[in-house]
Amino acid sequence: MAQIPPYKICFVPKSKEEEEEDEKIYKRYSEIAAATLPTTEGWTGKPMYQYQGFWYNSGLHGIGPLAVQDHFKARPSDILLASIPKSGTTWLKSLAFAVINRKSNPPSAQQQHPLHIFNSHDLVPGLEWLLYNNNLNALSGSRIVYICRNTKDTLVSWWHFNNKMRSNISLDAMELEEALHWFCKGMSSFGPFWEHVLGYWKASLERPQNVLFLKYDEMVVEPVLHLKKIAEFMGCSFSPIEEKEGLVDEIIKLCSFENLSNLAVNKTEKNASGLPNSSFFRQGKVGDSSNYLSPEMLEQLDRITEQKFHGSGLKL
Ligand code: PAP
Fold first, then answer.
1. What is the domain partition of the chain in residue ranges?
2. What is the pLDDT of residues 145-203, one digit of tens each?
3. Cα dist from 155 to 36, 131, 151, 167, 246, whole Å
4. Which of 280, 282, 289, when mutated, tests ligand 1's pocket best, judged by the most ligand atoms within 8 Å of its CB?
5. What CATH architecture is 77-309?
6. Which pTM was predicted?
7. How far is the CA of 119 from the centre of ligand 1 (A)?
8. How far is the CA of 172 from the centre of ligand 1 (A)?
């Protein structure tokens, strides 16, 4: 039986007047969205809308993205994890949670560890769709850990995920050709993919103390190096004693695909958005896309990636 995700306990209770005020604000956002924002058919039955150049799923994200833009206030002590879907969010959330809470929740505690009880999406809630979907002034932040992944694996992972969502609501699977078409047009959740990644890449160059830019593909190859980098950036570096005691390896093992994907919570339960936790785990490999994309499709994605990132110094 699923417990209440811990982040919900952090919400400050609201008075009736405050709740009514929130309702009015959200009603206004819905009206603005309906009257002024471009919309198109989404990947999983609900429309997507475009706001400030990026696309959002009206079913899952609601009008949270509008509320976040207007009401989210960054505080220097906060840490945000950012990504475009399917680039390693579940993994990064698990690692960051395990690192920050390692004193109160040692990774060696195994079955007692919150990651054994909750999927990481319930421990580190989504800003737009859980914290700001129907509720203002929840939390805020200012250091950002961003994760991205090579374009081809991101697309193939996204395509698989959406087809799982579609089958849950009895929609036919989307052909890969169609998925590629919409993805290349920039019309996937939080897309355009390339602009999303580039925005954070540029910010990480301009303000490296505020934005840590990670690549899933590199983290798979060198998890220890990257976990230490993440801990240092978040202001909780591992001490020499912790390293000697093997804490870094313990956290990597706890958060590994093999471990998390086999936990009961991730095999059988749903997260706070109602999605099956199992939908966040598939292969967890680099390069799996070449088993699905034709040579022409691979070349098309490589070409667009090269054009979009030209001159930026970024390679994916
Ligand atoms: P989200 O944006 O919906 O949260 P996200 O976690 O970013 O999804 O990406 C899911 C991908 O990360 C899946 O990739 P695949 O489809 O190519 O297999 C998933 O398997 C992979 N993944 C999930 N957890 C881990 C993990 N602990 N280590 C490595 N990869 C993982």
1. 13-71, 77-309
2. 999 999 999 999 999 999 999 998 899 999 999 999 999 999 999 999 999 999 999 99
3. 29, 26, 6, 18, 35
4. 280
5. 3-Layer(aba) Sandwich (3.40)
6. 0.91
7. 12
8. 23
